[in-house]
């Protein structure tokens, strides 16, 4: 096994956290990841209400006795969801590990810390990481350009962003964006991270609540099959390249660009949900990171984490043999 | 020391290759890198003619008895340079290691292989890497989104691109784009590479033929201080963000975009050369990768490579302690 500050602090076996994923971070997946030795994460906003989140937490508790967490992502929104209600519900149901992400997380982080919870805050810049550090988060999740969903606007690939984190941060961090295998995990550890966050890779597992045709489509796709929408609105999101996302980009590239109101129907969350439910990859917008190019099968979470753990151990051992001591000939 | 297929094949001490850099890959730098245990590289097109390249090679041979190479980059050009002349001159002067890059490298690679030379071909996609593999190159250099100069148009960060290379390639590879320290080197080894290529990092060394004010500017800058020009011309290049490159991007973003002819004066190579000579960062366009954000000092090449070697060895040793065998408690 691989022991890091993350596994020690959370009491998990392998330093892998499941990413918060809208419509995907449900009890079936979160419990499977936790049972497999990682940290499963329920995505709060996949539930229609704080009470529905309570139900999802209880269901997860029935499926695993291992630690799991809840993700709350704060995104620009005309009618913001009841973030505080979700947060209180989760704490009241006994959740002690939270992943926060998005804009103005201060009040949420303060609340969780006042309740004695462990907070991982995800951010895409060193500046935001330092600011979250001041707010007292326990861990950071440093999310690079490769990620699914919102990479921010600075486009700094994980190779550099994580090494910058090693230079700048005092709080320990995990690596997000572009991780799906043992090579990535060991690279993240080399770059100073205490583990990785994997979203897209967990979408293609037996337990992910996603139609099998979508999983098959992801297996068949390559690292060039994602694109950025909302770049011109400065709210960039990386999603799977399909008819709908390509149309959004086309509209954004027209002279004069596009207003969000013109794109709203195309990008509706309910259409995205339909993709996972019906297996139609063109039903709407759905998230995927470039790591989709590395995914070649659909294992159970247990199989996946066992494989990553074994391969990572063997990669680390292999690397020690590259280091030659003493008076070498060269 | 760290022994990989790269160090073994080339007879060098540390698996670090200096990137080919226009106006920078001169004898002073190439010999310093080779003397420090890496592979120094003369950039052929920094010399005005094949005969001038001969002189540069002779000068380098006087400064080091270690192996060094010559880079020949094939770029879209209205009046292409005499690539074949440069290639013949280098081979005739005894150079046995070449780095090729750019479009249609087939004839050059064929020539070098016919002369018994060792060829590293740099490319930015798995497709091009496979094609170079068929041409018989000895090594590949897999160049990700983070790089200075030409990243291609697919924008795949090194974390994923290198792990894809591990899945797809039979020929060994080094990692390019975003590398400047020991963490990056160990990450690259984790991702299956046999070493790294560093360009931007070598720009900020004592021996780099660059004005001290530019080195100071690079030390003071962050990972957000580069931008992409020529994106709309599908010939993207990552350069330092300054008045000139910002103006190029502004012109490209006008409705209707910009023709190369409108940008030609702004991006002229001679203006770029002036930056390095005069120390005026706004004199023209000059290349830098996002790794510039990691650079905090201006060591000699010997100091830099010694530091990276020692830190990499210590990172690798540290990682082995994370792997815990036997019946752990967790």
From TrEMBL, chains A, B:
Task: Note the InterPro entries from the entry.
Answer: Aldolase_TIM, NMO
Keyword check for Flavoprotein? yes
Assigned keywords, A-Z? Flavoprotein, FMN, Oxidoreductase
Q: Does the keyword Oxidoreductase apply?
A: yes
In terms of superkingdom, the source organism counts as Eukaryota
Mind listing the GO molecular function terms for this protein?
Answer: nitronate monooxygenase activity
Q: What PANTHER family does the annotation carry?
A: 2-NITROPROPANE DIOXYGENASE, 2-NITROPROPANE DIOXYGENASE-LIKE PROTEIN
What is this protein's record name?
Nitronate monooxygenase
Organism this protein belongs to? Rhizoctonia solani
């Amino acid at each position: 096994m691989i022991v890091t500050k993350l596994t020690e602090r959370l009491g998990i076996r392998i330093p892998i956290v499941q990413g918060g994923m809208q419509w995907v971070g449900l009890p079936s997946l979160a419990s499977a990841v936790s049972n497999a030795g990682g940290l499963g994460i329920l995505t709060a906003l996949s539930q229609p209400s704080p009470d529905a989140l309570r139900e999802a937490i209880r269901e997860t508790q029935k499926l695993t006795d291992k630690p799991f967490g809840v993700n709350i992502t704060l995104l620009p929104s005309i009618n913001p969801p009841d973030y505080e209600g979700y947060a209180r519900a989760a704490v009241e149901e006994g959740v002690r590990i939270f992943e926060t992400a998005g804009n103005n997380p201060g009040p949420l982080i303060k609340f969780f810390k006042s309740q004695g919870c462990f907070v991982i805050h995800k951010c895409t810049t060193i500046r935001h990481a330092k600011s979250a550090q001041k707010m007292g988060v326990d861990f950071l999740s440093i999310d690079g350009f490769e990620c699914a969903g919102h990479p921010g606007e600075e486009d700094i690939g994980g190779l550099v962003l994580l090494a910058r984190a090693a230079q700048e941060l005092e709080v320990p961090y995990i690596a997000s964006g572009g991780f799906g295998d043992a090579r990535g995990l060991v690279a993240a550890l080399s770059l100073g991270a205490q583990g990785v966050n994997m979203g897209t890779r967990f979408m293609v597992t037996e337990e992910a609540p996603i139609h099998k045709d979508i999983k098959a489509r992801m297996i068949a796709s390559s690292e060039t099959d994602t694109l950025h929408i909302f770049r011109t609105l400065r709210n960039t999101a990386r999603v799977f390249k399909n008819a709908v996302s390509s149309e959004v980009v086309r509209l954004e590239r027209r002279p004069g660009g596009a207003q969000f109101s013109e794109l709203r129907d195309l990008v509706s969350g309910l259409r995205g949900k339909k993709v996972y439910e019906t297996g139609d990859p063109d039903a709407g917008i759905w998230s995927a990171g470039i790591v989709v190019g590395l995914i070649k099968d659909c294992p159970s979470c247990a199989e996946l984490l066992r494989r990553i753990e074994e391969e990572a151990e063997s990669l680390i051992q292999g690397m020690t043999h590259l280091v030659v001591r003493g008076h070498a000939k060269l």
